Amino acid sequence: MTYVDGFVLAVPADKKEVYRMHAAEAAPLFMEFGAIRMVECWGDDVPDGKLTDFRGAVKAQDGEVVVFSWIEYPSKEVRDAANQKIMADPRMQAMGEQMPFDGKRMIFGGFAPILDV
Questions:
Q1: Which InterPro entries match (predicted)?
Q2: What digits encode the pLDDT tens for the residues 79-104?
Q3: Terminal C-alpha separation, the chain
Q4: Would you list the DSSP string of 38-53?
Q5: Residue 97 is inside which H or E element, if any?
Q6: From the CB of residue 50, how many other CB atoms can be counted at a distance below 10 Å?
């Protein structure tokens, strides 16, 4: 089975197209280093929870939309190697300086799939 990096972040609603372009620019780098799929999802039906929710997880502010995304790799080993290359790549470093969201509020993690139908 594949390995998945998952992300949740808050993006100003008026920066939707800027974010989409940023993600589209980053996608070829992830693919170059081994990703097999990258998906970006703009929040459309993200309800407030009673105890916790997506908005609270990223401390979304008024006027921000929650983005849920993931990157799939063929294996954890490929993902680990890709992350090292991506973080050292000057193209990614330049893009990191121009992120259209507050990266400090992004949550992320690596996940081993247990069901894929």
A1: Dimeric_a/b-barrel (IPR011008), DUF1428 (IPR009874)
A2: 999 999 999 999 988 888 888 999 99
A3: 11
A4: EEEEE-SS-PPPSS--
A5: none
A6: 6
pTM, two decimals, is 0.93
Query: For residue 8, which of 50, 61, 65, 84 has the smallest C-alpha distance?
Result: 65
34 and 74 Cβ atoms separated by less than 8 Å: yes
Average pLDDT, whole number, for the chain? 96
- Quick one: pLDDT at residue 66? 98
What is the 8-class DSSP label of residue 50?
S
Phi, psi of 41 (to 5 degrees): -125, 125
**Alpha carbons 64 and 9: distance in angstroms, whole number:** 9
Query: For residue 62, how many other CB atoms are within 10 A of its CB?
Result: 5
Instruction: Give me 113's structure tokens.
Output: 């799939």
